[in-house]
Design a protein that fits this description.
Subcellular location: Cytoplasm
CATH topology: Rossmann fold
Pathway: Purine metabolism; XMP biosynthesis via salvage pathway; XMP from xanthine: step 1/1
Number of strands: 10
Organism: Marinicrinis sediminis
Structural class: alpha/beta
Family: Belongs to the purine/pyrimidine phosphoribosyltransferase family. Xpt subfamily.
Helix content: 25-40%
Bound molecules: guanosine-5'-monophosphate
Enzyme class: transferase
Strand content: 25-35%
Largest sheet: 8 strands, mixed
């Protein structure tokens, strides 16, 4: 998506050769026009997959997952992050490291929102090592639902997350692939 890449170039702030700050469009303030166009693009790419639910992780995935689910006409579920988890038999829980915060959090989805009949599309804002998405994939697997694919706004392709998930046979659609953040410069894959 050229418009997305242009907005990333205009508004992205390279914090290090590993981290890109996108607070003004995705992670703190959201641009509704952009988010709605991302939802339309994901809905188009996964058309025909008979998706029944869109799953994401709070908080930055929510607006994009909502826009996608709205276009698809299906519900959106977001996993909640909990600092400590008391065992809850009514919920699926996975422990995931947080790339940006450097801590481990538990992510939780109520069992009542996922069933074996569901075909799930995972949506997230940015993929780095893939831990957040792998946590969601584990939850889907435990629920018996089918994972139809992943829609990611920004793939940092110099980090291993998306590649290893594709190698495991999962369809991953990324709208912008960043090949490098070295020397303060955002480079996209050709
Ligand atoms: P992963 O679990 O794939 O290592 O990291 C993914 C999560 O960390 C995403 O939910 C995303 O919000 C956050 N994240 C990873 N890399 C970046 C980055 O470069 N910039 C920002 N703003 N968030 C990131």
């Amino acid at each position: 998506m050229e418009s997305l890449k242009n907005q990333i170039l205009e508004e992205g702030v390279v914090l290090s050769d590993q981290v890109l700050k996108l607070d003004s469009i995705l992670n703190h303030q959201v641009d509704p026009v952009l988010i709605s166009s991302l939802g339309k693009e994901f809905a188009k790419r996964f058309e025909g997959e008979s998706i029944t639910k869109v799953l994401t992780l709070e908080s930055s995935g929510i607006s994009i997952a909502y826009a996608t689910a709205y276009e698809m006409g299906v519900p959106m579920v977001f996993a909640r992050r909990k600092k400590s988890i008391t065992t809850d038999e009514d919920a699926y829980c996975e422990r995931v490291p947080s790339f940006t915060k450097g801590i481990v959090t538990d992510i939780v989805v109520s069992k009542s929102f996922l069933s074996a009949d569901d075909r799930i599309l995972i949506i997230d804002d940015i993929i780095a090592n893939g831990d957040a998405v792998r946590g969601l994939m584990q939850i889907i697997q435990r629920s018996g639902a089918k994972l139809s694919g992943l829609g990611i706004v920004v793939e940092k392709s110099f980090q291993a997350g998306a590649r290893t998930i594709r190698e495991a046979g999962v369809r991953v659609e990324s709208l912008a692939k960043i090949s490098s953040l070295a020397n303060g410069k955002i480079e996209f894959e050709a």
